[in-house]
Amino acid sequence: MWLNTSSWELIILKQWSFPEELVHAVCWHHNPENCGNRCMLSDIVHVANNLGQIIGAGRGPDAWCSELSLPVVEKLGFKSADLEEIAEQTRQKINTLAGVL
Questions:
Q1: Are 2 and 10 in contact (CB under 8 A)?
Q2: Where are the alpha helices (DSSP H) in 1-79?
Q3: Per-residue pLDDT for the chain (101 aa), expressed as one digit of tens each?
Q4: Orientation of helix 40-54 relative to helix 20-28, angle to 10°
Q5: Labelling 33: which of 8, 20, 24, 49 has CA 20 to 30 A away?
Q6: Does 1 reside within a domain?
Q7: Would the pTM of this model clear 0.85, i.e. be above it?
Q8: Number of domains the chain contains
Q9: For residue 44, is it within any domain?
Q10: Domain assignment present for 28
Q11: Domain assignment of residue 48, given as a range
């Protein structure tokens, strides 16, 4: 069962012969535990998506936000301090780019 994506997205991904790993990343990045052990890209997209939402990038404060999966964070080898540092560096880079634009 494919969750977290609309049926038209899944149809397009399959019709265009996207690699299975990319299809899994699109379909499971909000619930990466449901993807199984072969979904490293889904895990990475999950963490990146949540960090983006935490720093306010993306759809805005009223957008639906999935809960950051601690088992996925641990599986990727991150610690809380790592994520805080990545979030801060990302926030700074976004502000720098926003100033250029």
A1: yes
A2: 7-15, 20-28, 40-54, 70-75
A3: 444 556 777 788 888 999 988 888 888 888 888 887 778 999 999 999 888 888 877 665 555 566 888 899 999 999 888 888 998 998 899 889 888 87
A4: 40
A5: 8
A6: no
A7: no
A8: 1
A9: yes
A10: yes
A11: 7-100
